[in-house]
Amino acid sequence: MALSSDTTVAKAPRTPRVRRGAGRQHHAGPLTYVLLGLAALVSLFPLYWNLVAASHSGERVVEAPAPLLPGPRLLDNLSFAWNQVDMGGALINTTVVAGLVALSTVLFSTLAGFAFAKLPFRGRGALLTLVVATMTIPPQLSVIPLYRIITDLGWVDQLQSVVLPSLVAAFGVFFMRQYLIEALPVELVEAARMDGAHSLRIVWHVVFPVARPAMAVLGMLVFVQSWNDFFWPFIALTPDGNPTLQVALAGLGAGNHTVDQAVVLTGALISTVPLLLVFALLGKHIVGGITAGAVKN
Question: What is the DSSP letter of 123?
């Protein structure tokens, strides 16, 4: 029996083509290791030269060509820099200030970011715009009114004058808000409310576990920024009173008419070592939290 011309013949489904090499584990080639090695050398060279400069005299550091090998004066420069200013007290002050600022910024930024991301309230968009707009204001504009406030409160040369103005940052609020929008399903919050959980319990048992990777990254960034902050601490604190490390470094190496650059770089080396220890001890935990937050179930 002949088939009519308008009869359509069903076609068999096409088998999807599998790309060759799909699922295969790729290994880095020699060029990759060469590029990574060069990037590591370029990144570590400033730290290495800081160590070299700290082991020479001030006259040798400023000579041309600059020294590239360690010298014999490292211990002498370390002892001189440690005793010329209150380096031990400055180290404790900086640890306290950076730790408090990091903890408070992470806590308040997570709470505010959760509110902006998942809690509906009137004026949320306008308030978020106002918070982000504060990032465009140069910090130098707030120095005079802020200094008058701490003067009236009697906080000059006190650590609270450095900690309290930095309890929360607009960048941290925006950072946590953007993370929680994608990482925290609104159904999870609604399910917790249906189970009778109040807001603080939701934050503690739902928001904080989900936001932990971003909190670790934000805490690391804020801690490093606060550790290296110089502008406002130099105004609010004094090198001879209650300084942080960066303020104490401003008084290092001062002589009659010149500054001993070797001693200054020795102080910079002292201020860098604690940060390196923090990264060495907590680097795996921070990276592990980041990678854990990148996996979706």
Answer: T
Report how far residue 246's alpha carbon sits from residue 239's, in angstroms, rounded to the nearest whole number: 9
Please check whether residue 222 is in contact with residue 102, taking contact to mean a CB–CB distance below 8 angstroms: yes
If you average pLDDT over residues 100-116, what whole number do you get? 94
Q: Please say whether the beta carbons of 166 and 101 come within 8 A.
A: yes
Q: Which residues contact 166 (CB under 8 A, 6 or more apart)?
A: 101, 104, 105, 226
For 278-290, give one letter per residue: b (16+ CB within 10 A) or e: beeeeeeebeebe
pTM to 2 decimal places: 0.81
Mean pLDDT of 148-168: 91
Inter-residue contact 57 to 262 (CB < 8 Å) = yes
* Chain position carrying tokens 């006259």: 59
CA distance 189 to 206: 7
For residue 256, give both structure tokens: 């009659």
Among the listed residues 268, 278, 222, the one whose alpha carbon sits nearest the alpha carbon of residue 98: 222
Q: Which two tokens stand for residue 63?
A: 């000579």
State the Cα–Cα distance between residues 36 and 40, nearest whole angstrom. Answer: 6
